[in-house]
Each structure stands twice: as C-alpha cells, then as structure tokens.
Amino acid sequence: MARVLVGVKRVVDYAVKIRVKPDKSGVVTDGVKHSMNPFDEIAVEEAIRLKEKKFASEVVAVTCGPTQNQETLRTALAMGADRGIHVEIPAADYPKVGPLHVSKILAKLAQKEEAGLIIVGKQAIDDDCNQTAQMTASFLDWPQGTFASELKLEGDKLTVVREIDGGLETIELKMPAVVSADLRLNEPRYATLPNIMKAKKKKVDKLSPSDLGVEIATNIEVLEVSDPPVRDAGMKVENTEELISKLKEAGLV
Amino acid sequence: MRLLQALSKFAASKSLIRNVRAAFSQTPLTSDTYKVERGNYGEIASEDISIFKDIVGCSHVVTDPSDLEGNNIDWLKTVRGQSKLMVKPKSTKEVSEILKHCNERNLAVCPQGGNTGLVGGSVPVFDEVILSTQRMNKIISIDPISGVLVCQAGCILETANKDLAGHGLIAPLDLGAKGSCHLGGNISTNAGGLRLLRYGSLRGTVLGVEAVLSDGAVLDCLSTLRKDNTGYDLKQLMIGSEGTLGVVTALSILCPQKPASVNVAFLGVESFEKVLKIQQCARKDLGEILSAVEFMDSECMRNVTHHLNMTNPIADCPFYILIETSGSNASHDEEKLGRFLEEVMDAGIADDGTLATDYTKMEAIWGLRERMAEAMLHDGYNFKYDFSLPTDKMYDLVRASREHLKGICKSVVGYGHLGDGNLHLNITCEKYSRDIHSAVEPFVYEWTSRHKGSVSAEHGLGFKKRQYMAYTKSKEEIMMMKKIKQLFDPKGILNPYKMLPDNF
C-alpha cells in the first residue's frame, strides 16, 4: 500500500472580491479571508478516500509557506490526513516562491518519505500556473496523470481518466506516480467537529527549504498587476426607433 | 464546484419557472377560494389608462393579461388576483399623481415590490391597480461615515448589499428572498430575517421613510438622523403597515460595518432540550460576536436534501442548529468559536457538527436554511405559519401538530429563528382541500394564542392571516388600528382586503 503525499496551498478565498493594490505591485491579501486552494481540497479528499478503501497506508499533507499556512494543514488533517509537514518559508521570501520551488520540495519529500503517490490540485486559484504536478513528476522521473476526474488504483497500476479539450482520456500509469486533481474528481467532505478536535493532536513536522537542499531564488520579477479593463455597460432601448437612433449616434449605421 | 452548484441552482430555478406557469393555471382565484367580497370601488375605464400612460409613459403601463400573470399570483402560488392593470412609476412624483387620481376615481390600489411576501399581501384580490416599485431602484446616497443608506423603495436587497459592500457596509437585515425583495416592501412588512438577533429590527435601523398617502400627498419623514425626538414618530406607522397607510417611496436606513470575519458552525443535536442548551452556551461564550442562531429539524433536512439536491454536511440528527459569528478580528473570533465548539462537543451536548472553513462552504450551509421555503414548495401545497412563542415551548407546537394531523398531511416541519423565539411551522399536503385547512386552522392559532404567542412573528398578516389578528391583539388595539386607517385612507383604496380583519 502506498504512502500518499498531498500538496495544499493557502490562497485568498475563492468567494472574495480581489482588489489590486494601489501601487499595482500585487493584490491585497492583508486582512482578507484565506482558505485551502479548492483543487487541493479535492486532492486531499481523493487521498483520504484511497486510504479508506485500503489502497493507501498513510496520507501526509504538505504545505510550503509562512506561519499562517498551518491553518491550511489543520484543515487537511481535520478532513482525515494522518500527519502534516510544514515547509516554513518566511513571509518576506514567500513572494519569490513558485511552482519550480514547490515541485523541487515535493520531489525531495517524496523521496525522503518514500511516498508512492503524489496528488496535488491541478492549479492554484491565485496564480493559475498549472505547473507543479508536471515539474514534480519530471524531477522524480515519475509518470504523471494530470486533470484527473477519476482515479482507480489496482496493485501498482493507476488508471487515470483525464479531462482534456476533446473530452476524456483514460491512461494507465505504473506507480509511483504524480496526479493533479480536477474539479470533477470528487466532492470534498466537510471537516466534522470530532475530526477537527482530533486534528489538533496530529503530528506536524516543520522543515525549511534548505533542509531539503532547495534554494528560494527566482529569476522572475513581477513588473505590474492591474485590473482587467472595465466592460462598458449596455443599455436598454424602448423601441426600434430608439435603437436605430442610438446606432446612428454611435456611427454604426 | 461553484459551477456545478450554479448549474444545479439554475436547473432548480428553471423547473420552478415551469412550476409557476403550471401552478398559475392550477391556483384558483382568491375570490373563489376565500369568502371575500369586492369593495365598493370604481371600475377602471380607458380614460384612467390613458391618464396613467400620461403620468408614467406608455411602455410602463401593463394591460396584457399574460404579462400580468406573475404579478397576480403570490410566490407560494396560493392566492391569485384578477388585476388587469399595472403601473410602473419611477419617481415619488409619479406615485403621487397616480394615487391622487386613484383617490379621485375611488380605484383600489395594490402596492407591489418584489412580490416575495408569504401571506398574500402583495397581490391583488380583485381588480386592484398594481402599483409596482420595480423601476424605483435608485440609490440616492451612501454615507460611509454615518453608515446611512438613502434609496428608493424599489431597490433590491441583494443589489443594495453589493453597493454597500463597496463602502465596507452591509444591510442590517438578511433574508432568503434577498435576490428579489424590495427594501420598500421589507419596510412595509417590517421584515425580520436572519440577522435580527444581531442588528435589531427595522423599527430601530430605519431612520427615515418617505411615503405617498392615499390622496397623493407626500409624507416626507426621510431623515438621516440617528436621534430625533421632536413629536410623534410617524415613520413607525409606515413600517409594518403592509401598504395600508401609505406607499413607501424612499427610505433611509442605518447600515452596520461589513464584518471582517464571518464564521458558520453547523451542529447536529439529539433533542430540542439540547438545542436550547447550545443556544445558552453560544450566548455565554460567543456573546457579542454572535450574529445568527437558526434551527431546523430532521424533516427539514430531508426535504431540502431531497428536493433541492443539497448535501447534509454532517450525520443525520433529529435537530440541527446553525450558528454564525461576525466580528472585526479573525483570530479573536476563531479562538472564541474554537473554545465554544470544544465545550459543546466535550459536554456531549452536540453529537456532530462542522465549522465552515471557506466562504463557499458557509454559503452551502446557509443554503440548507435559506432555501427551506423553496424546498417545501416542491413538497406540495404549503400551509405556512410564523409564530412567536416562548423559546422552550417552540417545538411542542410542531409535535402537537404532527400528532393532530397524523395521516392527513404529508410533512410537518419546524425550523426558524431560534434566537428570536420565532418558529416557522410548515405543513404540506398533496393538494389543497378545505378539510385539511379546517384541520390545521384554527388548531395552530389557538395553540399559539393559549401560549401567549404571536400568530405572525415577521411575515405579517397580508390577506391570508388578517382574520386572525384577534388571537394576538385585543379588541381595543384593533379598534385603534381601524381609526388610524380611517384617518390615513378614508376611502380605503390602499391595499384593501389586507392586514385588518373584516369584522371586529
């Protein structure tokens, strides 16, 4: 039975109205509600289901980021993950972290923890990169099943149904493997109170990126973040005569 | 996930539209179902229609019967009027001119906002002129310093909330109908809702009202002052008088700060006694951050999951309690909530529960409570009751009703604003019948009256409950109300057949 590693990211809550900072250097995150990346929630749910079906021996949740990321780990533990790993990155350095670093970290952890399966969300809703699963697989030289909408594990054979542009593609991977979760993979469970209480006692190990030999340095510089252009409001007209006169006014007829 | 939720909501609403169309042909006319006689009002003539067209413009006078279907029937599809005319003014001046004319011609008027009322108060009974506020949806001002919103009566609650959010404010009331209800209607019915526990009733948060009286005179009480003790508070007469004393055209309302941190906990409980214990704990441990306490029973959960395809986030339990906190500091609130939840779990008062960790989950949990009325609509014909009762006796009425109606009705469910002592009792049956009606009423009213409760906590009396006022109000009180009605509307043209009982 495989040990499953699940990556979870702390992002601005899906339902929050995002505002750009006045200096256009990024979006406002201070005082804004954060939660687990919805696709990562689906990944956690899938891992727990594998354990419940006795296909996985242990579910380990991993997060990379500052102190607040502990909340995200606790949510994963409350859903049913067995233990957590918090790769601590100071808040000042966190903006430099991207999929390249996270995938290096996950790859090293997978080797360290002797994991047989890595599941992450297909992308984070803040950067929409959709790169971590692919790069992690590449670093480990493991096969990958991305945009998974269905997962079946039999021995060391993993069948993945992938959501692709033309429809659905079914592939077979030999474990160990990396999977990225898509929307329709499952409906994540609610963390129930008894489990929330139990989660407080579950083990959370703390590491730094350098413990894993990963350097947080980036060649990418964000130049500007701006709002999308405002869409002009439409207007209602009372009748065809008015429509024609408005079109004429706009020089369209 | 949100997409899936949106799609399933759309599918549900599409079937609801189909149901309305189907129901319209099924719902009999109010005048056929109930014993009510048309008052001695004038008949609408073509001259009246042209005068209305002059006032509001041709395209804002509706006379096509198929266009008026939705305006003649209430949201519950239980009452249906026969109006052949709807006018849609866009300003107080237009409303004034319309009412002046109706008064001269002795034409009855039915003011209509979002038509989401649950007691048949917002639709005509006969051929009353429907005066719709749907075009009066302008926000006049939002003052971020005082928190006062001034707007026209036809502003939809949810839309106003969106504008308020931009200033860091929220409306002081919230209800399941927020996507359609008009603030003018909320005020005319003194709507309660889910946040009354925290922000109080509209009688406290509404600072000013502008209304047009039956003769077209404009009563301008549109103040934005928090305190003003200079005479009788006339706006209080407009609040909750269900359009029978005047047509609300504008309002000013005090809006609280949008909370920085909102949390929702949903608990599963074994008995109603334990529900009450949890409420006590919540008051003690959560105190000033508590913003909503709602309860529902297992029958409710069965209906809402079955009819609306929703999921129960926890195990099946006899009772459920929803607790919401709103505060200015996330970590402070989460700490308090964490301690409260630990306490109720350790003491074994709650059997199961969940704490929503993100906004989508909070919405989903609230949906289980907010969409209850919608779910019950799918279950059959609804007898809907809204009672104020001593909190510890609240569920006894549900049990008594179940016993009394065994074998006669389909579902008997109890839910509501536990924190306000307000029970929503819903009884469903396959089809309406006079026999079932007489089994249900006056049983539930007499029970409530015996326990000194109110036969309408927040829904108002409208058409369907006006004859039951005497269960909660004394003869002297009713007499005084009639004198006030005579003073404000001597011809009785404003929303006739509503709120006041026929004989007293």
TrEMBL record, chain A:
<dbReference type="InterPro" id="IPR012255">
    <property type="entry name" value="ETF_b"/>
</dbReference>
<dbReference type="InterPro" id="IPR014729">
    <property type="entry name" value="Rossmann-like_a/b/a_fold"/>
</dbReference>
<comment type="similarity">
    <text>Belongs to the ETF beta-subunit/FixA family.</text>
</comment>
<dbReference type="InterPro" id="IPR014730">
    <property type="entry name" value="ETF_a/b_N"/>
</dbReference>
<comment type="function">
    <text>The electron transfer flavoprotein serves as a specific electron acceptor for several dehydrogenases, including five acyl-CoA dehydrogenases, glutaryl-CoA and sarcosine dehydrogenase. It transfers the electrons to the main mitochondrial respiratory chain via ETF-ubiquinone oxidoreductase (ETF dehydrogenase).</text>
</comment>
<comment type="subunit">
    <text>Heterodimer composed of ETFA and ETFB. Identified in a complex that contains ETFA, ETFB and ETFRF1. Interacts with ACADM.</text>
</comment>
<comment type="function">
    <text>Heterodimeric electron transfer flavoprotein that accepts electrons from several mitochondrial dehydrogenases, including acyl-CoA dehydrogenases, glutaryl-CoA and sarcosine dehydrogenase. It transfers the electrons to the main mitochondrial respiratory chain via ETF-ubiquinone oxidoreductase. Required for normal mitochondrial fatty acid oxidation and normal amino acid metabolism. ETFB binds an AMP molecule that probably has a purely structural role.</text>
</comment>
<dbReference type="InterPro" id="IPR033948">
    <property type="entry name" value="ETF_beta_N"/>
</dbReference>
<keyword id="KW-0813">Transport</keyword>
<keyword id="KW-0496">Mitochondrion</keyword>
<comment type="subunit">
    <text>Heterodimer of an alpha and a beta subunit.</text>
</comment>
<protein>
    <recommendedName>
        <fullName>Electron transfer flavoprotein subunit beta</fullName>
    </recommendedName>
</protein>
<dbReference type="InterPro" id="IPR000049">
    <property type="entry name" value="ET-Flavoprotein_bsu_CS"/>
</dbReference>
<feature type="domain" description="Electron transfer flavoprotein alpha/beta-subunit N-terminal">
    <location>
        <begin position="24"/>
        <end position="216"/>
    </location>
</feature>
<keyword id="KW-0249">Electron transport</keyword>
<dbReference type="Pfam" id="PF01012">
    <property type="entry name" value="ETF"/>
</dbReference>
TrEMBL record, chain B:
<dbReference type="InterPro" id="IPR004113">
    <property type="entry name" value="FAD-bd_oxidored_4_C"/>
</dbReference>
<dbReference type="Pfam" id="PF01565">
    <property type="entry name" value="FAD_binding_4"/>
</dbReference>
<dbReference type="InterPro" id="IPR016167">
    <property type="entry name" value="FAD-bd_PCMH_sub1"/>
</dbReference>
<dbReference type="InterPro" id="IPR016166">
    <property type="entry name" value="FAD-bd_PCMH"/>
</dbReference>
<dbReference type="InterPro" id="IPR006094">
    <property type="entry name" value="Oxid_FAD_bind_N"/>
</dbReference>
<comment type="similarity">
    <text>Belongs to the FAD-binding oxidoreductase/transferase type 4 family.</text>
</comment>
<feature type="domain" description="FAD-binding PCMH-type">
    <location>
        <begin position="79"/>
        <end position="258"/>
    </location>
</feature>
<dbReference type="InterPro" id="IPR016164">
    <property type="entry name" value="FAD-linked_Oxase-like_C"/>
</dbReference>
<dbReference type="InterPro" id="IPR016171">
    <property type="entry name" value="Vanillyl_alc_oxidase_C-sub2"/>
</dbReference>
<keyword id="KW-0560">Oxidoreductase</keyword>
<comment type="function">
    <text>Catalyzes the oxidation of D-2-hydroxyglutarate (D-2-HG) to alpha-ketoglutarate. Also catalyzes the oxidation of other D-2-hydroxyacids, such as D-malate (D-MAL) and D-lactate (D-LAC). Exhibits high activities towards D-2-HG and D-MAL but a very weak activity towards D-LAC.</text>
</comment>
<dbReference type="InterPro" id="IPR036318">
    <property type="entry name" value="FAD-bd_PCMH-like_sf"/>
</dbReference>
<dbReference type="Pfam" id="PF02913">
    <property type="entry name" value="FAD-oxidase_C"/>
</dbReference>
<keyword id="KW-0285">Flavoprotein</keyword>
<dbReference type="InterPro" id="IPR016169">
    <property type="entry name" value="FAD-bd_PCMH_sub2"/>
</dbReference>
<protein>
    <recommendedName>
        <fullName>D-2-hydroxyglutarate dehydrogenase, mitochondrial</fullName>
        <ecNumber>1.1.99.39</ecNumber>
    </recommendedName>
</protein>
<dbReference type="InterPro" id="IPR051264">
    <property type="entry name" value="FAD-oxidored/transferase_4"/>
</dbReference>
<keyword id="KW-0274">FAD</keyword>
